[in-house]
Each structure stands twice: as C-alpha cells, then as structure tokens.
Amino acid sequence: MALVGVLALQGSFNEHIAALRRLGVKGVEIRKPEQLETVASLIIPGGESTTMAKLAEYHNLFPALREFVKMGKPVWGTCAGLIFLANKATGQKIGGQELIGGLDCTVHRNFFGSQIRSFEAELAVPELASKEGGPEVFRGVFIRAPAILDVGPEVQVLADYLVPINEENTGSEKKVIVAVRQRNLLATAFHPELTADTRWHSYFLKMATETGEEASSSIVAVGADLNLDQQPKIDLPIFQ
Ligand SMILES: NC(=O)CC[C@H](N)C(=O)O
C-alpha cells in the first residue's frame, strides 16, 4: 500500500492519522514541499483555512500542493481542506486567502453560521454504501462548516443536506452539497475523522488504487438565516 500524506500544519491531522492507523495504514505528516514527493496521496484536514493558508504560504507549500493536484494524485480535503481545494470560495476574511484550487466548485465558508451552530446530521451517501458496504447513512460532524453552492460538470455529488431556512417559519428548505468527488479529488464539508466509521478513509484509499498511484509503498495523512435544531456535541478549538 502506498504512503498517505496528511497535511500537518494545523487542525485535525492527528485524528486523520489515527483513522488511517485503524485501517492498518501509515499516515505521513507533511509540513514541507519536499515531503510531498514521498507520498502517493494526501489528506488536507479540517481546522481554520485562513490560518492554514498563512502557514502553507510561510512554508512555500502552495506550488508543490498545486502540482500534486495537477499530477492527478488523490487528494481529500475535509472542511477547511475542502475550502483549500475549491476553485472559488465566498465568505472569506477581508483580503481573502490563497487556495490550492482544482476542484470545480464554489464553496461558502462558515455557511451554517458561527461555531455555536455546529451540528451533527445523518447523511445519505449511496456511493459510500455501494463501494464500502454498511448502512447508506453516514453521521456527518459539521463544525463551523462550509457548504458547496455550485459544482462544475465533472463533479460528482456524493451527499447533500437539506437546510431549514428561517424565513418567518415558512418551512422552506434549501439543498446544499456537502460531499463531492472530481476524478482524483474528494471533498467533504464534515469530519469523518471524528467518527468511528472509517468508510470515507477506506473509500479514499481505494481512489489511490483506481488512479494508479500504488507505485510507492504506504499513505500519508498527513450564515445564513438558518434554523438548526442540533446542538454542537464537540468543542474542539482547532476548528474555527
Ligand atoms: N471545521 C473546519 O475545518 C472549519 C473550517 C473553518 N470554518 C474555515 O473557514 O476554515
């Protein structure tokens, strides 16, 4: 099995490495551009995308990360990692932030509101069940999460979520996209690494095989007017 890299600048990289370990795969912490050459695939964890972007800039990682994506190597972005991979992001801080890009979509940062609007929800993910077995539903942990507002023609939508809109209790709902795949790129707005269900990690590991990246020998893991009933169940300061 090829090595999996996990971008380890900030955020939930340890949790991704632990999830890979549960599958018997070694995740490699990536902090420098040259370390990317040692891995066949990469996980970009959740955390805080502006901070992560500043650290990536400081370590001169952007050119190597863009090259990694362009080479067709499998890359999975969770939450802040999804923002990193998007071609376009809205709701950014003043001055914006640098993105890796490559994923043909527009992502809205902090779509569900502030940290206190974090929530968990059951998501229907037929693709996951058909490839990995188990139930069709996956429990998504959304922590100050982004949502995908639109996708290009090559993007496969893996999961969406119906958001209640709090406009004078009209009962209306808006559908947003929360998981996608575009060839070698996988992105989830939620955090599978914070659950015991390792099917997303195993799905990603299989992408490496499909895209013929088995050459090396291990993996490195390196607001809206909403009315959300669910209350946050986790308080992790690494996510903002
Ligand atoms: N859980 C997360 O990764 C949160 C992402 C964060 N809201 C951001 O914009 O970077």
TrEMBL record:
Annotated EC: 3.5.1.2
Official protein name in the record: glutaminase
Family the UniProt entry places it in: Belongs to the glutaminase PdxT/SNO family.
Keyword Transmembrane helix: no
Pfam families found in the cross-reference section: SNO
Assigned keywords, A-Z: Glutamine amidotransferase, Hydrolase, Lyase
Enzyme class: hydrolase
Species of provenance: Prunus mume
SUPFAM superfamilies per record: Class I glutamine amidotransferase-like
Annotated catalysed reactions: L-glutamine + H2O = L-glutamate + NH4(+)
